[in-house]
Structures are given as structure tokens and as C-alpha cells.
Design goal:
147 residues; 14% helix; 31% strand; globular; 2,3-Dihydroxybiphenyl 1,2-Dioxygenase, domain 1; single chain; alpha/beta
């Protein structure tokens, strides 16, 4: 009889890594607007300027790095770097997210029900789309009304 081998999980988390055109502008959006917290950062030049960071919003994380516009390792996107990229955050209450971010001045798409979930979406300064979704039994295609 063969003993079963316990297999530990190896892959722990997927973390989107966004190349951004302006770290300052992106941090205002993600930290100031959406409520992410910067938990790690890389400031290699001694000037205090963040070149890379790890941001967390409760149990979710993303990474940002400003792309170099000149010199070695420079990159010039053909359009906004985030065009065509959507990240879906599964939440307990997407409507609460909508209310929080709009209260902070972030333009968020009015929540609607799609695929059995409330969905609201924001777009960051580089075109990355962030969708916040939560399960619901409300009828499909219902649009959120604050009244």
C-alpha cells in the first residue's frame, strides 16, 4: 500500500503588475481615491521617488511601476498602457465600494447586475479597468438607484 504524499500549495496569489505613465498620478488614484495602502516600495535613486510599489486593498494586491521614457529599458506604448486590460475584484459588497470611491471623487460606472453580480467599474489614468463585483439575487440588468 502506498502512502499518500501531502502536497503543499505552491502558487499563492496572482498580482496584476501595471506599467504606469506617472507614479504620482497613479498613487493619487489608487491610494487617495480607491483606498489602497502602499505596503512595499522601491526608491532606488535616493530622491524618495517611488519607482515601484505594492498596493493592497484588504485581501487584494496590485503592483505599479512607472515605465522609463528615455534611456536603457525605456518603453513607449502605442496607446494608453492599460487599454484592453480589466481586473475583476470579487467583493462582499460592490455597492459599498461604489459609494466609497465616488465619495472620494472617483468617477465610477453606475452599478448594474450582470451574471448574477452587482458590477461597478473605474478606469485608472492609464486606461486599466478595475471592476468590483459582488454576488446578488437581484434581477439581471437592474441598474443601481440610490433613492
Amino acid at each position: 500500500m502506498q502512502a499518500k504524499t501531502k502536497v503543499e500549495t505552491n502558487v499563492q496569489q496572482a498580482v496584476p503588475f501595471f506599467r504606469v505613465s506617472s507614479m504620482e498620478r497613479s498613487l493619487r488614484f489608487y491610494v487617495g481615491g480607491l483606498g489602497f495602502e502602499m505596503t512595499k516600495k522601491w526608491t532606488p535613486d535616493g530622491d524618495g521617488k517611488v519607482r515601484w510599489c505594492w498596493l493592497e486593498l484588504e485581501n487584494a494586491a496590485i503592483m505599479l511601476q512607472e515605465y522609463r521614457k528615455e534611456g536603457p529599458n525605456s518603453w513607449t506604448p502605442e496607446s494608453k498602457p492599460g487599454v484592453g486590460v480589466s481586473i475583476c475584484f470579487q467583493c462582499k459588497d460592490a455597492l459599498a465600494i461604489y459609494k466609497e470611491v465616488t465619495a472620494r471623487g472617483i468617477a465610477a460606472k453606475k452599478p448594474f447586475v450582470g451574471n448574477g453580480m452587482w458590477v461597478t467599474m473605474v478606469e485608472d489614468p492609464d486606461g486599466y479597468k478595475l471592476e468590483f463585483e459582488s454576488l446578488t439575487d437581484v434581477q439581471e440588468e437592474t441598474v443601481f438607484s440610490e433613492g
